Inverse folding.
C-alpha cells in the first residue's frame, strides 16, 4: 500500500459518496499492518461530521479481513461494540461479514449495552444478513430488539425479510422462526405501530399464523384491530395487508373475532367496502371458508358480508361496471336476496370520489340494469323501487353540483 497516497486520501475516505466497498476490500488486502490501517480509518471517522459519514469503506475492509484474517476481524468487531466512535455503526459493520453464533452473541450484547441506536439494527433486514443465524438465535435476537423502545418496527422488518429469504429457498421454515413471528405480532400496539410496516406485518402473519398454532393468535389480533378501530385509536384501512394475511391464514377465526355474534353490526361500520384505499382485504378470503362461515348463520352473515366484499368490476379500464363473481354468488346462496341487494346498493353512493358524484352514482346504479338469473318477484320489486330512488338522488346531486359550479363562476367574475 502506498502510505503517502493513503495519507492524502484519508480525510475523504470516511466521507466520500459512492460505493467504496471495493476500495475497502483492496485496502485490506494491500495493508501491511491491517490493524493500524483500521485504527487510522476509525480516527478519521471520529473527525467526520455525522451527516457526512460513509461506512462503505469500513464494511468492505471488514469483509476482506473476515476472509484473510478472521481473528482480527472478530477482534475489531468486539472493540466496535463498546467504542465511542464505532458503537453506533456496529450493526452495519457486523452485517458486512457472515454472522456466526459468536457474532449473534455479540449482537445480543450490543443490545444489552445500549450504545447502538435501535434503528441501526434495521440494517440486518438487508442482504440476507440474518440467513446464517439459527431459528433459536433469531428468536432471541428478535425478542431483544422488539423489547427496546421503538424496536418493534425494527424487529418486524428484520423477521419479515428473513421469512422472505426462507420462502425463496423453498424449504420448511424453522419452527422457532414461526414461533417468534407469533410472539412478536401479539406484542403489537395498533395505536403506536408504524403503519408503513403493513406489508411486513402481512407477510409475517401469512407465514406464522397457519394451522392450529395460529388460530388463537389470529383471533386475538383481529379483536385488537376491531377494538382500536372502533375507538378511532387506529384505522383498519392502514392495515389492509395485515388484515388480508389474517383472513387468508385463519379465515374462520378472523371473521369470528371481527364480527362476534353479540355485536355483529358495529364492526362492519369500519370494515365495509368503501373504507379501503388500496385494496379490499375481504376479497382475499377463500370462497369455501367465506361461504362456510356465512352458512352458519345465513340470515345475518350474508347481508353482513355483502357490505364488506367488492361487488363490481369493469371489463376494461373505462368500460361499464359488472357484478363481481363473488357478488353474484352471494345472491345465489343467500336465503334473503333483497337484504343482500340492500347492502350492495349502499355502495352505490360513494363517500369519496373525484369529479362528479352524480356521475359516480349513476355509473354504479347501472348495475341494477344487469340481467340477474337469481331474480325473483321480491328482487324485481326492490330493483324497481331502487331505480326510482337513485334517479331522484342523481337528479338532486346534479342540482347541487350545478349550484356549486355557479357559485364558483361568480367568484371569478
Amino acid at each position: 500500500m502506498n502510505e503517502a497516497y493513503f495519507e492524502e486520501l484519508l480525510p475523504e475516505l470516511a466521507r466520500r459518496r459512492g460505493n467504496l466497498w471495493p476500495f475497502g476490500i483492496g485496502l485490506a488486502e494491500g495493508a501491511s499492518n491491517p490493524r493500524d490501517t483500521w485504527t487510522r480509518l476509525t480516527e478519521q471517522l471520529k473527525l467526520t461530521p455525522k451527516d457526512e459519514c460513509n461506512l462503505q469503506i469500513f464494511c468492505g475492509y471488514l469483509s476482506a479481513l473476515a476472509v484473510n484474517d478472521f481473528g482480527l476481524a472478530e477482534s475489531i468487531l468486539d472493540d466496535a461494540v463498546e467504542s465511542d466512535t464505532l458503537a453506533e455503526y456496529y450493526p452495519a459493520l457486523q452485517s458486512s461479514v457472515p454472522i456466526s453464533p459468536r457474532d449473534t452473541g455479540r449482537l445480543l450484547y450490543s443490545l444489552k449495552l445500549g450504545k447502538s441506536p435501535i434503528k441501526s439494527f434495521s440494517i440486518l433486514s438487508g442482504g440476507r444478513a440474518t440467513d446464517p443465524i439459527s431459528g433459536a438465535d433469531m428468536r432471541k435476537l428478535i425478542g431483544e430488539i422488539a423489547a427496546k423502545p421503538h424496536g418493534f418496527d425494527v424487529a418486524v422488518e428484520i423477521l419479515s425479510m428473513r421469512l422472505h429469504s426462507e420462502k425463496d429457498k423453498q424449504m420448511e421454515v424453522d419452527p422457532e422462526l414461526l414461533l417468534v413471528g407469533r410472539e412478536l405480532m401479539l406484542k403489537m400496539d395498533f395505536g403506536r405501530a408504524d403503519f408503513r410496516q403493513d406489508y411486513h406485518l402481512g407477510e409475517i402473519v401469512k407465514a406464522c399464523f397457519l394451522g392450529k398454532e395460529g388460530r388463537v393468535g389470529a383471533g386475538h389480533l383481529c379483536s385488537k384491530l376491531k377494538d382500536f378501530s372502533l375507538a378511532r385509536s387506529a384505522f383498519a384501512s392502514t392495515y389492509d395487508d395485515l388484515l388480508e394475511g389474517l383472513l387468508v391464514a385463519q379465515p374462520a377465526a378472523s371473521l369470528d373475532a371481527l364480527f362476534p355474534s353479540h355485536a355483529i353490526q358495529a364492526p362492519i361500520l369500519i370494515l365495509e367496502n368503501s373504507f379501503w384505499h388500496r385494496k379490499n382485504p375481504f376479497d382475499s378470503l377463500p370462497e369455501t371458508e367465506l361461504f362456510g362461515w356465512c352458512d352458519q348463520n345465513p340470515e345475518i352473515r350474508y347481508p353482513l358480508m355483502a357490505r364488506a366484499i367488492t361487488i363490481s368490476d369493469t371489463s376494461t379500464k373505462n368500460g361499464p361496471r359488472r357484478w363481481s363473481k363473488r357478488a353474484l354468488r352471494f345472491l345465489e346462496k343467500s336465503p334473503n336476496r333483497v337484504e343482500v341487494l340492500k347492502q350492495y346498493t349502499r355502495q352505490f353512493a360513494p363517500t369519496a370520489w373525484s369529479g362528479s358524484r352524480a356521475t359516480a352514482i349513476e355509473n354504479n346504479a347501472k348495475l341494477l340494469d344487469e340481467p340477474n338469473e337469481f331474480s325473483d318477484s321480491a328482487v324485481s320489486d326492490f330493483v324497481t323501487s331502487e331505480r326510482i330512488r337513485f334517479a331522484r338522488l342523481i337528479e338532486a346531486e346534479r342540482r347541487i353540483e350545478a349550484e356549486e359550479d355557479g357559485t364558483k363562476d361568480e367568484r371569478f367574475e
Notes: The first helix runs from residue 3 to 13.
